[in-house]
Structures are given as C-alpha cells and as structure tokens.
Amino acid sequence: MLDPLLIAELAALGLATGFFAGLLGIGGGMIMVPFVTFTLGHRGVPADLSIKLAIATSMATIVFTSISSVRAHHRRGAVRWDLVARLVPGIVLGAALAGAGVFRFVHGRWLALLFAVFLVFAATQMLHARPPSSSRGLPGPGGQLVAGGVIGFLSGLVGAGGGFISVPFMTWCNVAVHQAIGTSAALGFPVALANVVGYVWSGSQVAGRPAGSLGFVFVPALAVIASASVLMAPVGVRVAHALPMQTLKRVFAFVLYALAAAMAYKGWSA
What we know:
By secondary structure, the protein is an all-alpha fold. It is 79% helix and 1% strand. Helix 2 packs parallel to helix 10 (245-269).
C-alpha cells in the first residue's frame, strides 16, 4: 500500500504529465522518469533498478495518457492518421527490440545519460534548426519504416512516448507543428504498448523489485499517475491549439533542457 502523502505526490505528477502530454505530444514520460526514480530510491530500491522501474512505469502510463490526448487532438483534426499507419510497423519492431531485449542488460546509469543526450538534441533542433526546405517532404515507405523503428527503439530505452524524436522529425519534414504534436500523441499508444509488453517479460525474473511490480512496471505508481494524467491531457490540448507555433517550439525545447539536466544528474549519481 502507498502512504497518503506519496499518493498525493504521484497524483500531482500525473496531473502535470497529462497536461504536458496534451500540450506537447511528449507522452509525459520525460517528466515522470526523474520523479519516479527519486521516489523509488527513497523506498530503498537500488539506483540501477529504480531508473529501470521508473522508465518502465512511465511508459506504462503513456498507454492511458495517449488515449485521452489523442482523442482531443483528433477532434481538432490535428492527427495525420495516414502517417501513423506508416510509422507504426517500425515502431513496434523497434520497441520490441528495446523493451524485451536491450533494456534489461543496459546499466541504469547509461540509460539515464542516453535519455539526457537525446533530450538536448531534440531541444536544440526545436530552437536552432533552420526552417525546413519547402521542397522537403516525408520519406517513402522504407524511410518511414526505419524512422518508426528508431522512434520505438529509443523510446523503449528512455521511457518516453517518442515525441522527443517524432515531433522534430515531422516538423523537419514540413508537417505543421500542431499536426506533428497531434500525430505524436497518436504514436504514443503503440510505442507504449509494445514497450510495456517487453518490460514485463524482460523484468519478470529480476530480483529486488518492490512489491506490486509486474516485470519492470511498478503497478501502484502506474495506477495513481495514470488516473490523474488522463484528466489533464485534454486541458493541455486546448492550450496547445491556442498558442502560436513558435511559442510551442520554445516551450517544448525548454522543458526538454530542464529534464535533460535532471536525468544527467541522476545518471552520474546512480
């Protein structure tokens, strides 16, 4: 059982991650991972294992958050379902390779540092990348399969819904930023589901997991965070569609920089 204070903290985290999932299409995982890592560490879970549990639990909440977020984006016509259909096969393959294979054997420190590096990359692209060429479009079916595989694999290693890769990728290919965010929210569901299956399987025999864990997923935290996050995702969507494109890019970038600093610290101290 979780104590009442911890339940309140996890609920607040869920509200925050749901809002950012709707606002930025990031699934909320990049906010959850540092916080859940810290929480589990204070419960006596070893640093290497706490980071993996945090990543897996964060990804599991995205299964629920993405449903609420994508429904709100879809109602506003901001989801490119044709693009979702072409990216999903690669996403599932990449996620399976990460969640069911590589994830178990990589040390938590390197997962945290990898997480920080890609956050910095994505943020810098958003702030400083040159405007895309007017003639640049999305790659063909093979290129989108590869892109989906990269999104699924890297998302599986860091516990994020893929928005930190898919949003910059789509905007680079001249997809409008609001559509990129809405489409990223839709991609969050297959990214999360495929990876969670892998986390449950690969973590089922790992010793030292806290009570209530299903593989690498810490179910009590999942239940509280997911319940709160689905309430706030539509609010984030409404705010997203009220803001201009450049403001969204700046918000997205500075959130990523802050979270990169937090995870770099966790990685070095693990």
